[in-house]
């Protein structure tokens, strides 16, 4: 494990040198398996250590504030990629792009304008972008401003997703009257739905409430057919996980799209 200080300066260097890349994991329509969107997941291409996954650097990036320039790059790169998909797949519609946004990034003044500008100069329509915000972002003191900004983004036509739902403290009722389109159910609940009644009931409850609020649901961490079949029975429309695909590199992703639609 790299020392934190060392990690921080290496990360600073990586931000300046552009040593990041994105991988993309399909979000699929559960009944058909077709991709409706892709989640962009950042990777650090370290010159000597190889590819480093975000669990090893996101926390330090957030603490140091380096998440802000890194996140700006992620958004721009994800939008350039979806612009390419739109050109390549036309006249067929392209899947949307889902981008993780950290608390720190979201609190940066001008975040909404940054998103608007990035859409404008990449020529991507707002409907082709989804932003994933973790549930814990919404638990802080400046809640009202956060909701107002989410409302503005959503009025632009961008989809808003709550990521890792179920891991925070928010009750289901908290979702009412909120500018949210998509609830992503955390994979820790999906792991257990085939063996235990309690997570099954919880996931069933999230799905039925979200449906009644006209929100759509993505179940994360679907690793086998048994998970998928339980979720289909519960009426879950969308899913993500190793059963369908692990996150794919930029060159693999178009091949996956072609293979899965033929
Ligand atoms: O594949 P995986 O190891 O990629 O991702 C681990 C975690 O890192 C996920 O929980 C995800 O939310 C987070 N993550 C991945 N990419 C990004 C990113 O671009 N920005 C932020 N803020 N978090 C990310
Ligand atoms: O927290 P977030 O949901 O953004 O993170 C997605 C993370 O989950 C990434 O690290 C990704 O690689 C990982 N992931 C995606 N599909 C699966 C899966 O089916 N099982 C497990 N264990 N992890 C997955
Ligand atoms: Mn996510
Ligand atoms: Na998640």
Automatic annotation (TrEMBL):
Domain EAL residue range list: 4-261
Superkingdom field: Bacteria
Protein name as catalogued: PAS domain S-box-containing protein/diguanylate cyclase (GGDEF)-like protein
Species the sequence originates in: Actinoplanes palleronii
